[in-house]
Design brief:
The chain is mostly helical and about 160 residues long. The protein has one domain (about 5-150). It has helices at about 10-25, 40-65, 70-80, 85-95, 105-115, 120-135, 140-150. The chain is globular, with a radius of gyration of 16 Å. InterPro entries: DMP19_C.
Length: about 160
């Protein structure tokens, strides 16, 4: 299945995301992600679509707490690749709270990295400000992803 099957649709990025999610999750448990099953282009769409939803649902704190946080650095690169300059800037500021600005790709280790900020009002205030800035939606990630899908019409969804 190629992106070209969806480029004429109103939201081709959502269509790619929807197809990707069917491939990524194992039908037996529905919880384990197998990102290696999708192409690098589909992975970009999948991760950024999830990132957008994660931040809108619970902010950067939720991103770091949930499994999507395993991919923070890849998400940062992907944001830059699609031209989501403001979103990348905000994520970079949020990541700066981690030692050497390197959030662990292991969820439990990432929690340990943030443990010193558990009751830190400055941390909470800083992330809340970043959330508020993100909610202004200056980049319009959905549209940037639609453009990305259209530019990569020959990309496959499957790996």
């Amino acid at each position: 299945m190629r992106f070209s099957e969806f480029i004429e649709r109103k939201e081709p990025a959502y269509e790619v995301f929807d197809q990707s999610i069917k491939i990524v999750f194992d039908k037996d448990d529905g919880n384990t992600e197998y990102l290696e099953r999708i192409s690098k282009e589909a992975r970009l769409v999948y991760l950024l679509w999830c990132f957008d939803g994660e931040i809108h649902n619970g902010g950067f704190d939720q991103l770091f707490f949930n499994s999507l946080g395993d991919h923070c650095l890849e998400i940062l690169e992907s944001l830059q690749l699609v031209g989501a300059v403001r979103s990348a800037e905000l994520l970079k500021k949020a990541i700066a709270w981690f030692p050497n600005s390197l959030p662990s790709s292991d969820r439990e280790e990432r929690w340990q990295q943030l443990e010193p900020y558990e009751d830190d009002e400055k941390y909470e205030e800083a992330l809340n400000q970043l959330d508020d800035e993100f909610y202004k939606y200056e980049d319009n990630l959905a549209e940037l992803l639609n453009q990305y899908v259209r530019r990569h019409a020959e990309a496959s969804i499957n790996a």
